[in-house]
Amino acid sequence: MGAAAPATRRRLKLGSVLVGGLIALLLVIQLYPIIWLLLSSVKAPKEFNLRPIYALPEGFYWQNYADAWTRGNMSTYFRNSIIVTIPSLALIILASVAAAFALEIMRWRLQKLALMTFLVGIMVPMQIVILPLFTIYYNLHLINNLLGLILTYTAFGLPLTVFLFSGYIKPIPLEVIESAVVDGANIYQVFFRIVIPMLMNAIVTVALVQFFFIWNDLVLSMTFVNETSLRTIQTGLLNFVGQYGQRQWGPTFAGIAMAVIPILVIYMLMNNLVIRGLTSGAVKG
Amino acid sequence: MDRVLRDRRAILVFIGPALLLYTLVLLIPIVWSVGYTFFEGSPVSGFRFNGITNYVELVGDAKFWQALWFSTQYAAVVTSGQVVLGLLLALLFHFYLKRGSSIVRTLVFFPVVLPTVAVAAIFSKLFAIAPQYGLVNALIDLFMGKEAVVSWLGRGGSAFWVIAIMDIWRAMGFYAVILYAGLLDIPSDVLEAASLDGAKGWRLVQFIIIPLILPILISSLIFSLNGTLKVFDSIVALTNGGPGSATTPLTLYMYRSAFTNNAYGYGSTVAVMLAIYCLIVSLVAYRVTRNNA
Predict the structure, then answer these.
(1) B20 touches chain A (CB under 8 A)
(2) What is the ipTM metric for this complex?
(3) What is the domain extent for residue B278?
(4) B270 CA to chain A: closest CA distance, Å?
(5) Chain A touched by B253 (CB under 8 Å)
(6) For chain A, N or C: smaller number of CB within 10 Å?
(7) Would B180 be classed as within a structural domain?
(8) CATH code: domain of residue B272
(9) What span, in angstroms and rounded, lies between the C-alpha atoms of B93 and B108?
């Protein structure tokens, strides 16, 4: 026993050193590109020319951010993204909670069929919808119009959110609603005063997930908007990187960092909610 | 009570807006899209009925087959990478980090939420060759000299791998978290009993763990296949389908047909083929994995 114990301990130690090294490597692989981005975004132009790209910045060259914000139009893209994202989120949440309420609590024929209809939308590839939608929007003058984007994001968000909220509403006991009705509440009061407050946690999670989808979207915004003054953050960034990216690395890195930083902040504050929200939609769907 | 819940007007008020918007923006265009496959033209020039010409053209279109082949290769490589690495990470979290894995999981998941365009822009700089060396080429230059530097995005073969690495990097944390949740559901006495019977390491994974998390593994596989067959953002932002058309998937080919060549009917035909292909692959993946279990 006296001889065996140190050997086992040594093997254990070697094992945990190996696993520790593996995890360190993993974290470097997952995080270093972002750290590298942030470091590179504060390098002065001459640092890119004279020193290797892995060198640390010599100081903080904030001019890159100023250039990206003004000359690179990032301020416009940011504003447009916010103008589009906030109403879309509000509409998605309101419409899908209401629809789920009608599907799970109210009583009518064709309830099951209506739910199935929404589920079809989860599976359909976006690409199959884009071309007819472009024709419709073209005729309604919704191309190069932020309202068109808001409607599109809302509609594309609905299938998954209706499905998720149905799952959250189903377990609400009917007695809760019944007692409110006995106390004289009408159905709209039941919805706004009872059901919505009970779903608050779910609403935050679902809204967070939809925020990522909308904020990160490329294909819809690129299809329905092509005027620089109306571009959202991803199409703007794509354009900006294409234009500037070849020569001016500093402002390019700053522009990319601007698209990443809001996401980084939200993730740091609410990562558990984000992870739960994103993965719950996936496995059920 | 029943009367309140059967209030037709209230039902319409609640479900009307969602159903209307969903029908107009998604359902009608889906049907419309299938209709388009029998037409030629564009919203600007107008549409003309042309029967099954689009389908005939599709069969003889080498570019279509090239895009289909690219999408297939890409989905096979990236799905394998995402799910296999996700599983390895989940095992690492569960069996080596145990309770302390929360921070590591959170950090590994982070790339999942990043905007694809930003990620692609970072990767294009990581693998750049001109006007400056990107990080990868700078390191190659440092250790192996100038001759070993590679134009990663300038050749179809290496561009394929850069895109694949990027999308595996982006999503493996997602599958790790999903599969980790599956591992948590395995009762610990099952694992104890198995290890008492002498099952260790890979054998334990192969004969006990994988069969127990099979349903969630299949969901991950199908989810990943569906995502990778429809890849668009990563490729548009990283290579834009090039060099030439070497990295053009079906989605981008459809997009080009419609918006660059103004052939909406043909683009729709490609889109419908893509939808059918996704459906077939998902069904086959489901059947094959189920039968092997």
Answers:
(1) no
(2) 0.89
(3) 62-291
(4) 9
(5) no
(6) N
(7) yes
(8) 1.10.3720.10
(9) 11
